Automatic annotation (TrEMBL):
Pfam family, one: Glyoxalase
Protein's recorded name: VOC domain-containing protein
Lineage summary: Bacteria, Pseudomonadati, Pseudomonadota, Gammaproteobacteria, Oceanospirillales
Domain named VOC: residues: 3-132
InterPro entries: Glyas_Bleomycin-R_OHBP_Dase (IPR029068), Glyas_Fos-R_dOase_dom (IPR004360), VOC_core (IPR037523)
Domain of life: Bacteria
Organism: Modicisalibacter ilicicola DSM 19980
Length: 142
């Protein structure tokens, strides 16, 4: 198994995070307490820590121009294979998730061509999920 990353973010409500990450994204839940919960985010340890004073969704987002879109920064996510990415797009679309950047192919015909999408969790954390037809050959292509 490759080295999994560990990422901790703030959320305004633990039950809301459980609904989003557990039910919508399908992340299995690990350890938890009243103030934090671990999720298995595609094999990575992802932790939501309660901050009931967290501001609105757009308070801490900066946007950086990439391929003609305003990419929200900071953001995090996972690189998936194309079938898993397409299945996630379908699940999110059916659930009525509002995309910050609609699913599309970025850098079409160039090195690093990738499928990508951006959306926010209920606490305003920005997520990007992307996919490549050939992850090993395209992930760091220049």
């Amino acid at each position: 198994m490759p080295n999994p990353f560990h990422l901790a973010v703030q959320v305004r409500d633990i039950e809301e995070a459980r609904g989003f990450y557990g039910k919508l994204l399908g992340c299995a839940e690990g350890r938890s307490s009243d103030s934090w919960v671990d999720f298995d985010l595609y094999g990575h340890q992802f932790v939501c820590h309660l901050n009931p004073d967290l501001g609105s969704a757009s308070d801490n987002l900066h946007r950086n121009a990439v391929d003609g879109h305003g990419v929200p920064v900071p953001h995090f996510g996972v690189v998936l294979d194309m079938p898993a990415w397409e299945a996630l797009v379908d699940r999110l679309t059916r659930a009525g998730v509002r995309f910050e950047i609609e699913p599309y192919i970025r850098f079409r015909g160039e090195p690093g061509e990738q499928a990508t999408m951006f959306f926010l969790d209920p606490s305003g954390n920005a997520l990007e999920f992307k996919a490549f037809r050939d992850i090993e050959g395209q992930l760091f292509a220049t």
